[in-house]
Design brief:
Number of helices: 12
CATH superfamily of the largest domain: Isopropylmalate Dehydrogenase
Bound molecules: 3-isopropylmalic acid, manganese (II) ion
CATH class of the largest domain: Alpha Beta
Distance between the termini: 19 Å
Shape: globular
Number of domains: 2
Low-confidence stretches: none
């Protein structure tokens, strides 16, 4: 099978972790007889430096033509000036919106051998296997924003907006995902305060009637933040709006031992040339400017994102499993990057651990 993938390495450690994933991709191609064509494009801070904009038209055009997109990370101190007119993150939001990727799937699992890499106690972590479905093209990220002057001082406004159809479609996706798992959906909102959350809760309740086989509950976001560390194993699928999902998934990532481990898939209604969902795949971590260029970044989040890409956008389940198994095996054998290594354990470079993953494909 012939496939066109767009790579958006981005900024900071982005190019290092995407480079690692590409090595794994090549190994999968060889082992299973696929040709994966890849095209690399600029997006984020690197695109601002080259073209003055975070998402050049050419980049978005290439993403729209591709079967799937693999992204590293965007942003960094160089572009962090709060008064700047253009920001790297706008590029990422532009890709998400431009491809209509309204659902971001963030699975959180813990490899049994990484229990000691997590700050949580072993007994809390037993059985953790959850999927956060984060709404990705609405809410505060995309609502009207402005600065204005009132009584001689500056005010800033962000607006949280949700339409019923935006809530409905991501909820359907969450319930369908739950059917392939432990059949439980937890919807997270702040319905005691926010009007958008009250609409969210009403709409989710309506959609839930179409899934009588799936257990369904509502939790307020502040409580959810607490339960994620006090009883994380009680969650199966968690569905929530954009900003809550952003915050809760960084919190949930510590359950996996390191934020560097977690992959994500962003999907919408659009299909690619293979008749599968077109998607954007990226680790949930950021550009980690403090370790960029040192060759020590953990590539697991990006490599597991590649596995999700193979599964969801290309329908290559066997190949996806092969990648996941390669990572599992290497961890079981004791191979660790610096973020995962415990006292006394040897920390491997990005390149060295990637070699090990490649050899296990
Ligand atoms: C994420 C990131 C992004 C987000 C940033 C880089 C725009 O934090 O994917 O979680 O807030 O969505
Ligand atoms: Mn985030």
């Amino acid at each position: 099978m012939k496939t066109k993938l767009v790579l958006l390495p981005g900024d900071g450690i982005g190019p290092e972790v995407v480079g690692a994933a590409v090595k794994v991709l090549r190994a999968v191609g060889q082992r299973y007889g696929h040709t994966f064509e890849t095209e690399t494009h600029l997006m984020g801070g690197c695109a601002i430096d080259a073209f003055g904009v975070p998402l050049p038209e050419e980049t978005l055009g290439a993403c729209l033509q591709a079967d799937a997109v693999l992204l590293g990370a965007v942003g960094g101190p160089k572009w962090d000036d709060p008064t700047a007119k253009v920001r790297p993150e706008q590029g990422l939001l532009g890709v998400r919106k431009g491809l209509g990727l309204f659902a971001n799937l963030r699975p959180v699992k813990l490899h049994p051998d990484l229990v000691d890499s997590s700050p949580l106690r072993r007994e809390r972590l037993e059985g953790v296997d959850l999927l956060v479905v984060r709404e990705l093209t609405g809410g505060l990220y995309f609502g009207p924003k402005e600065r204005r002057e009132v009584n001689g001082e500056v005010q800033a406004i962000d607006t949280m907006v949700y339409a019923e159809h935006e809530i409905r479609r991501v909820t359907h996706l969450a319930f369908q995902a739950a059917r392939g798992r432990r059949k439980k959906v937890t919807s997270v909102d702040k319905a005691n305060i926010l009007e958008t959350s009250r609409l969210w809760r009403q709409t989710v309740a309506e959609v839930s009637k179409q899934y009588p086989d799936v257990q369904y509950e509502n939790i307020l976001v502040d409580a959810a933040a607490m339960y994620l560390v006090t009883r994380p194993a009680s969650f199966d699928v968690m569905v929530t709006e954009n900003m809550f999902g952003d915050i809760l998934t960084d919190e949930a990532s510590v359950l996996s031992g390191s934020m560097g481990n977690l992959p994500s898939a962003s999907l919408g209604d659009g299909l690619n040339g293979h008749g599968h969902p077109r998607g954007l795949y990226e680790p949930i971590h950021g550009s980690a400017p403090d370790i960029a260029g040192k060759g020590i970044a953990n590539p697991i989040g990006t490599i597991l994102s590649l596995a999700m890409l193979l599964r969801h956008s290309l329908g290559l389940e066997t190949e996806a499993r092969a990648v996941e198994n390669a990572v599992d095996t290497a961890i079981r054998e004791g191979h660790r990057t610096a973020d995962l290594a415990r006292n006394g354990e040897k920390a491997l470079s990005t390149e060295d651990i990637t070699e090990i993953f490649v050899s296990r494909i």
